[in-house]
Specification:
Helix 2 packs parallel to helix 3, helix 3 packs across helix 4 and helix 6 packs across helix 8. The longest helix has 15 residues. Strand 5, helix 5 and strand 6 form a beta-alpha-beta unit. This protein is 38% helix and 16% strand. It has a seven-stranded parallel beta sheet, sandwiched between helices. A two-stranded antiparallel sheet has the order 1-2. It has 262 residues and is of the alpha/beta class.
């Protein structure tokens, strides 16, 4: 177990972690953060629920907090790409919480909403952009944001990004990024297409794997219910109501049974 106060983080970040009640780093955090702080590229294999958001947001806050930005507006120093709106919002909230004591501005760019507030934030100047690829590419095309001064790139949930068809957007975004940057690449699995993408983006990365590939995060429990097709709707209704007795009640006909997965 690694305590956060042993990771050489800025006092402001330490205070924010303590305020949030976060005292001990998770395995992905304790293994990735020291190397990320040293500027190393990271290839992290970690599922949702393992604490990977802090594994990349804390080093970014540490780096940017040590040297205030002198860049022109619309030129962020860190870019975090994520596949979904919900995840982008969560990462934005983490940056707000962990960076509460730092003068670091960030914004979340995502589709499905008007771009007015996002353009306004970029115009006012931000250090960190958290974005979904489609909306970011749209704003880049309109000239609202430039990426040629990005120091740190994070690609979060890369396997989902490719599954959702973002590969072409990613290639266009990557083409606008400086070659001399730090890249933190996280994925729950490493199929061939994800491995190929990582090979193109990373330079001599440290591989950090905290759970076996394609396994469920420790905080998630899975169960399988075997049930005849005709009874599926009734069993689902009972489960939603929280009536687990429907899954174990004896029956003269082949009824539902429950078995834990490995």
């Amino acid at each position: 177990m690694t305590a956060f106060d042993t990771l050489s983080l800025r006092p402001e970040i330490q205070a924010a972690l303590a305020q949030l009640g976060h005292h001990t780093a998770t395995p992905i955090q304790s293994r990735a953060i020291p190397h990320a702080l040293a500027g190393r590229d990271i290839l992290g294999i970690a599922q949702t629920g393992t604490g990977k958001t802090a594994a990349f947001t804390l080093p970014i806050l540490q780096r940017l907090g040590a040297a205030p930005s002198a860049l022109p507006l619309r030129m962020p120093r860190a870019l975090i790409l994520t596949p979904t709106r919900e995840l982008a919002v969560q990462i934005g909230e983490s940056i707000t919480n962990y960076g509460a004591g730092l003068k670091i501005a960030h914004t979340v760019i995502l589709g499905g909403v008007g771009q007015g507030s996002q353009v306004k934030a970029l115009t006012g100047g931000v250090d960190i952009v958290v974005a979904t690829p489609g909306r970011l590419l749209d704003l880049m095309t309109q000239g609202h944001v430039r990426l040629d001064k990005v120091e740190v790139l994070v690609l979060d949930e890369a396997d989902r990004m490719l599954d959702m068809g973002f590969i072409h957007s990613l290639k266009k975004i990557m083409a606008k990024l400086p070659a001399n940057r730090q890249t933190l690449f996280f994925s729950a699995t490493m199929p061939a297409d994800v491995s190929e993408l990582a090979g193109k983006m990373l330079r001599d990365p440290l591989r950090v794997e905290v759970t076996p590939v394609s396994t469920t995060a420790e905080r998630i429990a899975q169960k399988v219910i075997f049930v005849p097709s005709a009874e599926k709707r009734h069993v689902l209704f009972d489960l939603i109501r929280g009536d687990a007795r429907a899954c174990s009640a004896p029956s003269s006909s082949p009824g539902p049974s429950m078995a834990p997965t490995a």
